[in-house]
Fold this sequence. Notes:
The complex is a heterodimer.
Chain A: H1 3-36, H2 41-63, H3 71-96
Helix pairs in contact in A: 1-2
Chain B: H1 19-48, H2 55-58, H3 61-86, H4 90-120, H5 129-156, H6 162-165, H7 167-197
Helix pairs in contact in B: 1-5, 1-7, 3-4, 3-7, 4-5, 5-7
Amino acid sequence: MSDDHALNIDRHVRTYITVFVALLCLTVITVAANFMLHLSVAGTITLALVIAAIKGSLVACYFMHLISERKLIYWVLGFTVVTFFGMLLIPILTESDKIHY
Amino acid sequence: MEIEIPYTVHARPDTGLTNGKIGIWLFLASEVMLFGALFATYIILRVGATTWPRGHDILNVPLATFNTTVLISSSVTMVMAWASLMRKQFGKYRLFMGMTILLGGVFLVVKYFEYSHKFEHHLFPSTSTFLAIYFTLTGLHMLHVIGGMVVNAYFWGPGAKLWKTDPVHFAARVEHSGLFWHFVDLVWIFLFPVLYLL
Lengths: 101, 198
């Protein structure tokens, strides 16, 4: 193993530890915010999902190495994300199309 | 005559990726759609319901918080197992992979106690819409945890023989199984607030 390669892995390991600590802190913040901040339902949902999105991004970018992945993977995931949000839109469209008697 | 599967170690010139890497990402994309469909179902049920309970009134938040830290820790040990292989430290790989499997087991034990508690109080999927979607989402997630543990156990045990003959290929396999494990962690990161806190 070359010295450069070893240094590179060491740097990766330090990043993993930092991300781990960040994820733990964000978990505590999620729970604490839910019980200590008395927000409206919409506010609570928004805050919890924003924190979850940050945590998810950290896992995807650093643990799954998405930050340094090839273009083809980004295309696959980009297409998936568009389809995913399209699917989430279905319930919203269904609600707005309700028949009121 | 033995036929060698192409591009397991070296990247394809057109995609710049090994077949295993593109395969696991396509599989994860299909998994996003599977869980996405259930999240969409959750939204339909919640928006359409006249009343919806707050998760923390029915479910055990401290236990779920503990399980969240367990799964996050297992993600770190998984990536450390892969890093150990990159450093050519097979002993450490075994240790970290073993810890990942163990943490997966802890997650399942905690879930078992959570489920048992619900059943003791006669709270079943048929009790309410909330519990129906709770058991469906967490049950499907648990199946993924079990699947990931089986694959990881294989690479910890009999599958590790490949390290002696083809270490690069073995490291690639562990990386792919790690991608699935991180995905399982990622799904829980969203399930936890959606079901337990909102």
